[in-house]
Amino acid sequence: LGMSVACVEKEKLGGVCLNIGCIPTKAMLTSALLANEMKDAEDHGIQADGMSFDLGPAQQRSRRVAHQMNQGVHHLFKKYGPTHVEGHGRIAGKGTVEVEDGNGGTETLRSDHIIVATGSRPRNLPILEIDEEKIWSSTGALFQEKAPETLAVVGAGAVGMEFADIYEAYGSRVTILEALERVLPIEDADASKAMARAFERRGMEIHTSARLESSEVGGDSVKLVFTDADGEEQTLEVERVLSAVGRVPNTEDVGLDTVGVERTEEGNFVAVDEWLRTNVEGVYAIGDCAGNQLLAHKASHEGIVCVENIAGEAHHPVDYGNVPNCTYCHPEVASVGLTEAQAKDEGYDVEVGKFPFVGNGRAVAAGDADGFVKVVRDRTYSEVLGAHIVGPHATELIAEFVLGRHLESTVEEMEKAMHPHPTLSEAIAEGALASLGRPIHI
User: Fold this and answer.
1) What span, in angstroms and rounded, lies between the C-alpha atoms of 20 and 84?
2) 3-class SS at 339?
3) Phi and psi at residue 358, in whole multiples of 5°?
4) Which tens digits make up the pLDDT trace of 2-56?
5) One of 67, 88, 421, 441 is an active-site residue; which one?
6) Are the C-beta atoms of residues 283 and 259 closer than 8 Å to each other?
7) CA angle 255, 301, 406 (to 5 degrees)
8) Helix/strand/coil for 5
9) Known catalytic residue: 84?
10) pLDDT tens digit sequence for 240-291
11) Counting runs of H as helices and runs of E as strands, what totals does the chain give?
12) Pairwise CA distance, residues 428 & 418, whole Å
């Protein structure tokens, strides 16, 4: 867009997602999937006697993947020309950012437009203090060379469920504690139930409506006391604990108060409008620090919208109702739009269709037919109100529904698009047909 750009970053380029979040986690989940598939190798005529599962090489591979992607960002900076300024940046006044380097030096940058993209960090509960030795955050869980014999995961959102998947695959006995009524609580109830069943079949123990009361770190273990769904006090002793109870924005010590940038009452996020503008002219915020869904693809999209708006080329604000959610464990879970319950609560005349992957030839051939495609539509206009997928490559398949909703396609229009056979994508059309009451292969 022809603008001069400086990017201030005190850590590695690429932020949390690339270096200590999405990318290395997906690398480890890929390793975990292979480990689980090898346990069924004999079904495919593969004799793999004496198999062992070592987390160390998987962890090392994940670091190589993250490093490769980080170097790719450096290459893009060289290719397109933004200046990388290393250090801690703070807004010092109108149009001014001061950058403190690691040696105590200070550099002053001036610009008409300042975008705050400081991200977030794991939430630390007072009764479950993260030390990264026995009680891990998601960051600590990425750097372990050995899977503990027993692991408690506190929090059953996407992060908690993904790490539970990884560590169970490499031999840990995993117990999951979730304060709300079900795992993956932001997902459709059917998706949550399917995931709980899948994890329990693998031997994981799940406690929902579980209120953590205390934690005590001992010499070789951590003792957790929690109240279960029946109101009874339970004690759980494990080698390690992963605290996966959400994230908080990095909005301190970046100079927001210096120029009077407002924060939200709940969560201390930077308050922005639909174009990512704060209350202070020339100051914007994107990504986790600006709230809404704390997702990397949402942050990236916000960045594009924000910069295009600054350049006078923005065509539409971010559509927060069409942000896909993805959980990359096995089976995968993905969704976009309203859950069935939300659609009914909002007063829609709802019709629901569900197509199981057991009716999809490609899924059955791959030996990966757990799960379903669920379509929630408005009966009056056949609008896709929400789509929910549990099963193989759900996080890839959901994009068809994201695009369909973006283009305001009806269920009939999505169903009439020809899908290749045999592919998992046929389940999208079948889910649409199911919502119309006329699926073909079930």
Assistant:
1) 20
2) coil
3) -65, -15
4) 999 999 999 999 999 999 999 999 999 999 999 999 988 888 999 888 889 999 9
5) 421
6) yes
7) 145
8) coil
9) no
10) 999 999 999 999 999 999 999 999 999 999 999 999 999 999 999 999 999 9
11) 13, 22
12) 11
